[in-house]
Amino acid sequence: MNAPASKARGSLLAALAVLFVVTVARPGLARADRLEQQSHLIELGGFIGLMVPSTEHELYNRLVGHYRYGTVTFDTGFRLAYMPFFFLGAEIELAVMPTEANDVAVMLHGFRAHVLGQFPIGGRFAPFLLIGGGYLGVVSGASSTGGDVDPAFHWGWGAKLYLRSDLALRIDFRQNVSARLGSGSTSHWEVLFGASWVLNWVTDTDKDGVPDNKDRCPKIAARTSDGCPAVDSDGDGIIDQLDKCPTQPATGNDGCPIRDHDWDGIPDHLDKCPTQPETRNGYQDEDGCPDVAPVPKGFEGTLEGVTFASGKARIAIVSYPVLDRAAKVLLKHVGLRVLIRGHTDSRGNRARNVRLSKDRAEAVKRYLIKKGISASRLTVQGVGPDEPVGDNKTAEGRAKNRRIEFKVVKTSGGASTPDTPAPQLQKTPTKAGAKKAKKKAKRKKGRAKKAKKKKAAKGATPPAPKPRQRTDVEKIP
What we know:
Elements lengths: L2 H23 L15 E12 L20 E11 L4 E14 L2 E15 L6 E15 L8 E17 L2 E13 L5 E15 L101 E2 L5 E2 L10 H13 L4 E7 L6 H21 L7 E7 L10 H7 L1 E8 L20 H27 L15 E2 L3
Parallel strand pairs: 11-12
Antiparallel strand pairs: 1-2, 1-8, 2-3, 3-4, 4-5, 5-6, 6-7, 7-8, 9-13, 10-14, 11-13
């Protein structure tokens, strides 16, 4: 390479160093302002520089003769580039290089088209490589080289610095290869300095990472998909962008209130009867429709197995399992309202029997209340001997007449007093447990008698013994 070409290469390297230093010294850029985020850029610009024509060129008219061009010529022109990707694009150039040959002014000219690949560094600085083809030509008078056009191949490298979103500076170093005098090929070297007007650069004014062309609030920084701060107009915790009802506070995940036209606590979209409130009666309470709970099979009528102490309203222990099962049914079917009816046989005074039958019904009610059933669901009635189901002249008939009956008086729901949680049930005594408890009570009574005798032996006057109470049990089947 001759001395002018070496000098041109040194100038290029110095310019590249300056561009790199300027780029590194620039403050950090917002993500959307970086070259890596750009596409479909159009760059329209011009350039000036120097060209070193080869002394062995074939740019002349054979009818005129061959002359050497000036050692270094002025080089200028304009270019148009399209960059569909931030790293790859295409470019065309037109250039003229005024010089002289045989002491006569001549004009070299050229057209070039090439592919350009660039490699961004720091967001705005981009070294590049290019390769392409075109032609070199000359225009002059008959006293010089005449006119001629030769095809030419070229490649080069350089760098761009995007000073602003609409302005880029550039430096190129080129080798143009065309026909050589005689045969073969020869090189023409170029150093070019240029500036380009950049179209379609996407900026990020508020530096929030959302480019202005996609930012609904380009002057307000916000780390959201649309570039606007998250707004929650109705204060329901769901931002307006995701809120289907931005002016109505939500109780649903979509930002809209849950609709419940009949105010039964079941949302309309789950309510099979959205205009009719649900009947809360323990029967299909999730469908949102009014209904009547069916009476459980075998629930009404005589409670088989409930017995009391003879002539008293004290529930026998063996009756607990039967009443526990009744309590479970009432807890499950909250719409049931029950009339508890007590019955006796015909022996004895009628008024006393009516009172005893009512007391026994009250005892059953108290037991059920202890198991968690609301008192408002239970009513009692003492019937006495007035509704016999058996023959009072026989023991078997009288046993049938001594009974507790359940009669369902209401199965619909509506506003009602809720059942209270049932206390934790003690283990229901078995027959063996009842016998054991009876023996224990007997032993305790025996110890009490011994203590009284001992006290009497010391001179104390023991209290008069109470009349012995009957302990036989009347069974009410």
